[in-house]
Every structure is written in structure tokens, then in C-alpha cells.
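Example record used in the benchmark description.
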Amino acid sequence: MAGDFNKKFGNRLREIRKSSKMSQQELAHEIGMTFNTISSIECGKISPKLDTIVKLALALDISLEDFLSFPETFAPNKYTRKMVEQISRQLMCYDEDFILLVSRTVENMIKAKNLNQKRG
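Model output (C-alpha cells):
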């Protein structure tokens, strides 16, 4: 169970750190840890203490609730993950209304694709 948390937390940390365009070294310096510690957390080798999780959340400017919410499914392959990350980075410079519009459009496209798959 702890190993599962470590892996999920490490993946989540890496995802958020990369979307923040922060290196492991920069994050380590920001919270007063070593690069090796950040790397070990991201690899799921060690479990961070609660105070470390709080420091990471503050440094990455994310709420603890969002930080500790782990997506149940991950992109199936490297290409898909890369494309999703690229789209996410492109949306970062837009306001919330535009992002909501894009989100609703994507949801409608997914619904349409699912309907077509059920018919086919």
C-alpha cells in the first residue's frame, strides 16, 4: 500500500513540477533539500513526510487537495502524454473562460466519439 502511494505521489510530483517548468534541482533548492531526495521521491523510492509535502505544494503553488488527488488513469503511451502536456502548456497563457470553453469542447468531442463507437 505504501509503495503504491509512493509511486502515485512521485508521478504526481513529476507531472506538476514539469508543468511548472521547474527542474528537480530548482525544486530541491527552493525547499532546502537535495536533488537526490527529489529524484527519489519522484521515482517512488521514498515516502515524503507531511511537512515535505506541504513545502512541495507551496513551492509548486498548488493546494494540498489538488496535489494529493491522483488521476486514476494515465496516458497510455509516451506520445499521448507528450501531446497532452504540450496542449496543457499552450493553454497556460489563456484566461479561465477560454480554458472552460476548450474543456467543454473536448468533453463534447469525447461524447460524440463514444456515441459513434457504440453505434459502430
